[in-house]
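=== How it folds ===
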Amino acid sequence: MGTLTNLPGTPIYDNTFPALPDHSATTTWTKVEYKKRPRDTPDTQKQSIKLPKLTDYWLNQPSTSTSNKFDVLMEPETNQTQPITQQPTPKPPPIFVAGVHNIQPLHALLIEIAAESFELKVLHENHVKIQPQSPDAYRTIT
């Protein structure tokens, strides 16, 4: 019912739908009410009235004067130059030695070379950590 044939083999489609009722002639538009509040214009806006300050109120005593009790400790600025701070020297990295079965000969050698300016720690699986205390001790050990 929706197709018509004008020529043999070519269908012509019709845009009428018999299943839909035709309400185009009877449809009327209804206006929806605007539900937002109207904006306040400067003419309609109420200005708040500021209440006068009570000066004779019994709790409104004159303000007490305050002072800084630490004023005595404050010294006036003088021409003091800040001391020049030296950059701290970074600690040298630790030295790890693997395969040390007897630590006594290593400890004696390090005392002879670095003169007690190192720390020696025994780690697991025959590893030893040598931490020199100064860059000079690091250079002599390595």
Q: What stands out?
A: DSSP finds two helices and five strands in the chain. The chain has a mean pLDDT of 77.
